[in-house]
Amino acid sequence: GENVEQHPSTLSVQEGDSAVIKCTYSDSASNYFPWYKQELGKRPQLIIDIRSNVGEKKDQRIAVTLNKTAKHFSLHITETQPEDSAVYFCAAKRGNAGNMLTFGGGTRLMVKP
Amino acid sequence: GAVVSQHPSRVICKSGTSVKIECRSLDFQATTMFWYRQFPKQSLMLMATSNEGSKATYEQGVEKDKFLINHASLTLSTLTVTSAHPEDSSFYICSASPPGSATEAFFGQGTRLTVV
User: Fold this and answer.
1) Which of A100, B38, B47, B57 lies 20 to 30 Å from A44 when distance is taken between CA atoms?
2) pLDDT below 70 — which residues of chain A?
3) Residues B6-33: what's their mean pLDDT?
């Protein structure tokens, strides 16, 4: 099955700096890679996703890059703000497995004002 | 976006009792729903795949007799934690996706279960 590794597990940055979170996946048939933001005690919220036919996608301060050959994808947050502080999860959808997601271990991002 | 509603959001029960958690897709039909468990400061671990009209598919290490899943309609899946013990205390969360390939997964609000 799919295995998703996420690094780092914690990340502390100063407000205004950039934050980068990296994930690797094992199943070359995976074709959908979402990123979720989860605040304490709440449901994960999709912030950006990328499909395997695209190498990069950007939405305002958030961008995701995908390297299919190396089987890794990354989340980039620029101009971080204190409200970006949360736990971020990457995920991969197993090929031919419906909409089942395999999640990375999560990254706790802390943005210091 | 699509809406998935989960109920209850919090429940406290005594050891040995059973607790039922509901997951509903409010504006789409879901032949498949997923149940996750999340321990504090950890990731979401898939417990089982709920299949409408057929048996659930459980992940390795998840006891099917302890975590009963029923997907009786295209908009409702239930997870029943039977004979709950304190170690079952956790955050349980469901997800579902509208029909189509590679579509966004929508999560329920989650259920904080505390077994005392």
Assistant:
1) B57
2) 95-99
3) 95
